[in-house]
Amino acid sequence: MWGDWAKGATGQGAFRVLGKGNRAEGKVLEPVGVFEAPKQHGKYETGQLFLHSVFGYRGIVLFPWQARLYDRDVASPVTEKSENAAGHGSKEVKGKTHTYYQVLIDARDCPHISQRSQTEAVTFLANHDDSRALYAIPGLDYVSHEDILPYSSTDQVPIQHELFERFLMYDQTKVPPFVARDTLCAWQEKNHPWLELSDVHRETTENIRVTVIPFYMGMREAQNSHVYWWRYCIRLENLDSEVVQLRERHWRIFSLSGTLETVRGRGVVGREPVLSKEQPAFQYSSHVSLQASSGHMWGTFRFERPDGSHFDVRIPPFSLESNKDEKTPPSGLHW
Q1: What are the tens digits of pLDDT across the range 79-99?
Q2: Of 2, 37, 96, 133, which is most buried by a Cβ count within 10 Å?
Q3: Shortest CA distance to 142 belongs to which of 195, 102, 191, 201?
Q4: Residues 141, 245: one domain?
Q5: Which residues form the ApaG domain (predicted)?
Q6: Residues 104, 218: one domain?
Q7: What is the rounded CA–CA span in Å between residue 102 and residue 180?
Q8: Burial 129-168 (b: 16+ CB within 10 A, else e)
Q9: 91 lies in a domain?
Q10: Do 49 and 169 reside in the same domain of the chain?
């Protein structure tokens, strides 16, 4: 399949696998650089080149985010049940610090990963009369520390992206040899409230792991009321070898205003992805709006096995919180 990678030992070549199907003779290896040892401690620096360990694309690190990971698969010292705002029992989960990175995706790889991961998933509210209008920055992503496979390259422009040379410049005296321009620092500071990744929620049911990252997008006035918007990114991973297919979604959305909405539908974002050993993950983003400044979401995904049987996978409950010191959301790329 296109978008895999062939990994040698540290110091050996990093390759992209080009070709379709699973037959070895149908594949071509494209060298991209030399692998480096993954960091067990500390963070990757701005300018670090990498291959995504799951989706296989080439990318470069812009800057890190320190998030709080709420992993419901990890046993918590607190075993008592608690009632959340939606009124259903849930175990206490303590968050731990986890590093994510804002990255650029190589534009050459975007068409080949689009069936498994959206490449225009980072969206913003457009700043004009249409309160529902959104715009995206193509090829921008958030990547967990453990998904980074670092490599180095002698190419002075190793990543093709319209923002690469606007954000980064080559400096052979540095390691890695790509440093932030002032425009990257200014863009990060200007758009920080709408880019910031703060909470990550994770839960596994029957070897299907669901990871949710919510982002607050801002508030708009519509028909004399305030409408608050969030984006949420969801990653589904099959940790088993059995092939399964996502068939349905079932959401419960609780608003601080007291409303409880139920949403059911086929698949997600118009797709019913298959998760297999060869392609174990699928990632997408969607949006939700409330007429209140906060709320909660939770639910289930229904999957189908090869024998036609079904099972439900829990979506970990997560909060929708607005920024108290809200400023006007961006109306475009700010430099």
Answers
A1: 434 444 444 445 678 899 999
A2: 2
A3: 102
A4: no
A5: 202-327
A6: no
A7: 13
A8: eeeeeeeebbbbbbbbbebbbbbbbeeeebbebebbeebb
A9: no
A10: yes
